[in-house]
Amino acid sequence: MDIEDIKYKILRQHLVEQLRRKFSFDERVLAAIGKISRQLFVANGLEHLAYEDRPLPIAAQQTISQPFTVAMQTHLLEIKKWDKVLEIGTGCGYQAAVLAEMGAKVYSIERQKELYVQAQNILWNLNYQVTLFYGDGYKGNSAFAPYQKIIVTCGAPTVPPILLEQLAVGGRMVIPIGVNGQDMQLIECFGKDDYRTTRHGNYNFVPMLEGMAGK
Question: Among 24, 37, 65, 142, which one carries the catalytic annotation?
């Protein structure tokens, strides 16, 4: 391990301690965040900011979520090993890496071609076995449904009905709902058309858009 690796390892541990002080996260979530090299996911030139608890710009005018937000969404999912997880909005791939590090089987959709290619390269180089799709997140991915967990990493005006259809009974969906700022909502499925929704704070995400970009 060279000096640069040691520096980032120390910064990761400082970030984990900061998150631990802010909220009683599942320790498995914090352990995953403590292992993943976030500096590899941010835009070139911003590596020195990778372990600050803040969102950062990435390609295609998008952002990598604030670590606290990543931790909260993951915490609410209650990931178990081998859970089949659908992620809407791969972005740079960092959230998918956290889920994979926790043992989930991750299927992730990205509408921006540039980000899809970038995430594929980063996750492959880090040896995370994530199945990525370049497509429209509003349609989900029925080919591998149902999913035990669904996570949406962009702000949706309403819950897309097709995503509810792809959520398994007993499953959990975490999705930010709203236009100018979002409520983080946890939707639990107890049976056909039987859902319970709880709210878990206010956040700001880039908007969830239909269609594909960068074809």
Answer: 65
